[in-house]
Amino acid sequence: MTFEEFLINLKSAVDRELPDGTSLEYKTILKNNEVALTGAYFLREKGQESSQLFYMEPLFEIIGGDGAVSEAAKFLLREKDTPVPERISEVRVKCFDDVRERIIVRLIGKERNRNRLPDLVYRDFLDMAVSACIYFPGTGEEHGITEVSRKMAASWGVPDGELLDLALENTRRLFPDTLRTLREAAHLQDEDESIDGLYVLSNEACYLGASAVLYTEKLPEIAKKYASDLWMIPSSIHEFILLPGNRMDEDFLHAAVEDVNASSVPKEDILTGSLYLYRRESGRIERVPD
Description:
The structure is a single chain. The protein is an alpha+beta fold and 290 residues long. The protein folds into three domains: 3-79, no CATH class; 88-174, no CATH class; 177-288, no CATH class. It is 30% helix and 26% strand. The chain contains nine helices and 13 strands. It has helices spanning 3-15, 56-63, 68-79, 96-99, 150-156, 160-174, 182-185, 218-226, 250-263, and strands at 23-30, 36-43, 54-55, 103-109, 122-125, 128-136, 144-147, 177-181, 199-203, 230-236, 239-244, 275-279, 284-288. It has a six-stranded antiparallel beta sheet, sandwiched between helices. Strands 4, 5, 6 and 7 form a four-stranded antiparallel beta sheet that branches. Strands 1-2-3 form a three-stranded antiparallel beta sheet. Strand 5 (122-125) and strand 6 (128-136) form a beta hairpin. The chain is globular and about 65 Å long. The model has no long low-confidence stretch (mean pLDDT 88).
């Protein structure tokens, strides 16, 4: 069964179980790295969206097989009455003061987002972009953001630099940085010594945690502890993996970045394909050439 057939059959199966005036609908959502995903939602009378958005590609990948439509239909019908998260339409974004405490930054890769960046408020950081977003807290692990466009910022009359400075301070406040060993972060109980000495830099929510590198004070602390520089692997937009050491096999570390991006991270969560190094003496982060 193709993905397109899955969507058609799923809508038919779900709509049969819904009351009159309610239907399952799809819309395309453009995510980070210009990844387009299919979002399913329930539409009630008068065109009102009455559920959270469910992304179909990962659902199709997880379920798969001959029973994919049946299992997916059961899941959607079970979750259809989940409260709708706060949406951008419910916040008066035309008034800057109504959203100023919600504006945060996130790190994204410039190359993978090159077509979208001209429309966004951002500043350069190595081969990454520090972009401004409006944050919508959810329940559990569900969070949401909407990007701040240049058009939106212009309507507020707030300069890009001032907006990004505010967003960074909000991020520091809303998402305190964390530094844990990889064993702690991944809840590993085995005795694999190969992961000893590896650290994960993120934030308390483990959400868009790679941006913690912009305001954390823990890099010089860990560098001082080991009396060394820190190699930095961007494992996703949510975290960096840190490896203390002055001399390392750079080819091996570059290959590790490629492997993480290819096998362990959804395309929309990839940060970059680069390797970085925190220099203990200068306190600066630099990109390691391929």
